[in-house]
Amino acid sequence: MADHDTLCGWGNQAKVAYFLANADVIVPRRAEQLKLIVELMPYSHDASISVLDLGAGFGAVTEQIIERYSRATVNCIDGSEAMVVHATKRLRNYQDRVTIMQADLAERSWLGVLERSAGTEVSRAQGVNFDAVVSALAIHHLSHERKRELYREIFRMLKPGGMFLNNDVVATPPALKVPFEALHLAAIQEQERSLRGITRPLDQIAAEMHEQLRLAGGQHHSHIAPLSDQLAWLVEAGFKSVDCYWRYLDLTIFGGIKEPAG
Ligand SMILES: C[S@@+](CC[C@H](N)C(=O)[O-])C[C@H]1O[C@@H](n2cnc3c(N)ncnc32)[C@H](O)[C@@H]1O
Predict the structure, then answer these.
(1) pLDDT in tens for each of the 262 residues of the chain?
(2) Nearest one of 44, 50, 239 to 127, comparing CA atoms
(3) Are 187 and 103 within one domain?
(4) Residue 202 domain boundaries
(5) Among 29, 52, 176, 177, which residue's Cβ finds the most Cβ atoms within 10 Å?
(6) Residue 184 lies in a domain
(7) Given the CA of residue 57, which atom of ligand 1 is nearest to it?
């Protein structure tokens, strides 16, 4: 068992409620990223694909997948009870296509939770296999060693030809810390203006962001890995076509394909 908060604050109901209410504003270019994740998945819209959403939160990515792929089924994993409650509510109209499970990705035991999940394609008898594994803003909460191990676990559970897409925060080059933060705050200010019609001072927005980081705990920052390391871990896990497909400041969508053997 880990001796720190492996959810980096996401067990806190107030933090969860804040993210639910504000994700579209506080994540620069959030809508673009959610849209691109589903557009990058190399499947036809009527394909019966089976997808796993890791750190699914309140179901924003899953909802996009379910709406875009009319015959897709999605298994959601998240460690936060509060998030699972919100996802269950948000995705209630898709109960026949979505399975929501609570498990801690920091522990290998999450695989057992997935395997025990009844009525999905992941029973032991059928083997764990998905056409795609996706994740948004979640894997950076894990230690580097656990990320590396998780990428190997993901590779094993993908079908040949399957794709992994990780929409996540990566480490900021130290020399660019100040401009990245300034651009980040300006992007939030602009999204707030366009979505809510209000313009708050940048220092007020900065104070709010720092408070959210404080709730994430001391571990949070040390867990954010450079993109180059993460791409190397994907290659090491066996992925091909490994690349960063989209990037804005420290936000990325990267991943790879499990090529069919032979
Ligand atoms: C910023 S939210 C993103 C949620 C969702 N993917 C989205 O984009 O809206 C981060 C999510 O990662 C989950 N998470 C963080 N650490 C986790 C862990 N160790 N195991 C499982 N889930 C975790 C949190 O509970 C939270 O739902």
Answers:
(1) 556 789 988 999 999 999 999 999 999 999 999 999 999 999 999 999 999 999 999 999 999 999 999 999 999 999 999 999 999 999 999 999 999 999 999 999 999 999 988 444 444 444 569 999 999 999 999 999 999 999 999 999 999 999 999 999 999 999 999 999 999 999 999 999 999 999 999 999 999 998 888 887 766 667 899 999 999 999 999 999 999 999 999 999 999 999 988 7
(2) 50
(3) no
(4) 174-216
(5) 52
(6) yes
(7) 27
In the reported structure, the alpha carbon of residue 10 is separated from the centroid of ligand 1 by a whole-number distance in angstroms of 7
Residue to probe by mutation, ligand 1, list 7, 27, 107, most atoms within 8 Å of CB: 7
Same domain as 212, residue 233: no
- 51 and 121 within one domain: yes
- By CB atoms closer than 10 A (0-12, 13-18, 19+), residue 113 is middle
DSSP reduced 3-state for 194: helix
- Is 17 part of any domain? yes
In a shared domain, residues 153 and 232: yes
Q: How would you classify the pairing of strands 158-169 and 240-248?
A: unpaired
Three-state DSSP at 120 gives: coil
Q: What span, in angstroms and rounded, lies between the C-alpha atoms of 189 and 110?
A: 38
Q: Is the CB of 59 under 6 A from ligand 1?
A: no
Verify whether ligand 1 is closer than 6 Å to residue 139 (CB atom): no
On whether both 210 and 142 belong to a single domain, the answer is no
pTM: 0.95
7 within domain boundaries? no
Q: Quick check: CB of 101 below 6 Å from ligand 1?
A: no
